[in-house]
Amino acid sequence: MHLFISIIDVYTGKASFQDVYSTTNHMTVLFTTDKSTTRKGFLANFTTGYNLGKPESCSSSDFQCSSGECIANGSLCDGHPDCSDVSDESNCVLLQNGTQSTNGKVQLMMRSEWYTVCAEYWTNQLSEFMCQYLGFGTGNATLVPSPDDGKTFVTVRQAENGSLVLTPSDQCANGSVVYLRCITKPCGTRMVLHKNDGKIVGGENAKQGAWPWIVSLHFKGQHVCGAALVNNEWLVTASHCAYGRNVHPSDWEAVIGLHTQLNLTYPQTPIRRIDRIVMNPQYNKRTKDSDITMMHLEHKVNFTDYIQPICLPEKEQVFKPGMKCLIAGWGKVLEQGSVANILQEAEIPLITNEKCQQQLPEYNITQRMMCAGYEQGGVDSCQGDSGGPLMCQEDTRWILAGVTSFGYGCARPQRPGAYVRVTQFVDWIHNILN
Ligand SMILES: [Ca+2]
């Protein structure tokens, strides 16, 4: 039997906290203390009730915004923000039947129904507009024959004032619809040129600017974990880094574009406070499943040669066992050793989950995890590298395949390291980014 437990929140310290609600008829509260002296202990009040903490649900002719308000169904995707969080206008374009999330036939949501967009009146500006709406860069449209499968169609025209004029129809005038190919925003590119020579155990010093998306996360001024920059305001890291330290996000700082911990004040090294921490609700501290968390920068960063985002994988992307990928971090350079000042990097091969399960029998290696390591050991991520990226190269771009999660010791023979399998979380990540 599988028991799915979602973390609602984790609170530490002496302060009192806002109310927390369970959205099921069940809630488990765990109290743990690391003090053995006799003190006051814990105080918590419990209340039960129907839909506690939930906004009242809307009538069937209304749409409920993510922020709770009710708006008329007709206000969905009408180009006008009606919800305070604009969630009524946030899922109105879809690319259907493409080979990747970046391409497909353009579908528009109107009056709670999906319409296929006719090729008539389509322009390059519309391609660009739709791709940017979907969070991509520019795009190119091709016109393909419309299937005669009883779908509803719509023509889209740009009015002189820039607004979109949508006209539904039973068929497309010239019999073709719009197939859009969007280009993802630049990511995963190393800007500083590198010769091919090259706390990670068995690693070597990275060149300055080698991994421009790697972030050092400082908690109360100390490096504790790594993270990866996925756009100009969001980081991906591990949940166990944030667990119990998520009440005051401002205790965290992200040091970006960093090379050595001994010099935090290079001009190319901005430091940003964290203002939001979103732990994956499926994270389980005991089994280490779904060990992934997003952190939001209080202020955006500008991309430079030393600061670039890493690419997220496609949901269906496969990283084959045997593939050599890279890890990097400021963690311990030996299991019993000290942390690294200069960013360390190392190449490690991916292994199958089956083999990983055999070699880490203490854990349940789930489909949401992936593993990497040499049979003979010697190269591994270690304490302080947690949350940092497992990076795999595709063509010329670097992709965030994994997030450093756990292992058994560091770099021991036949003891691979376990990573979050990011492909399993791309929908969750994109939801937060948009
Ligand atoms: Ca609206």
From TrEMBL:
This is Enteropeptidase. The keyword Protease applies. Belongs to the DMBT1 family. Gene3D superfamilies: Low-density Lipoprotein Receptor, Spermadhesin, CUB domain, SRCR-like domain, Trypsin-like serine proteases. GO terms for molecular function: serine-type endopeptidase activity. It comes from the Eukaryota. Keywords: Disulfide bond, Glycoprotein, Hydrolase, Protease, Repeat, Serine protease, Signal. SMART domains: LDLa, SR, Tryp_SPc. The keyword Metal-binding does not apply. Pfam families: CUB, Ldl_recept_a, SRCR_2, Trypsin. GO terms for cellular component: membrane. One of its GO terms (biological process) is proteolysis. Disulfide bonds join 58-70, 65-83, 77-92, 172-182. Residues 93-203 form the SRCR domain. The lineage of its organism: Eukaryota, Metazoa, Chordata, Craniata, Vertebrata. The gene is TMPRSS15. Residues 200-434 form the Peptidase S1 domain.
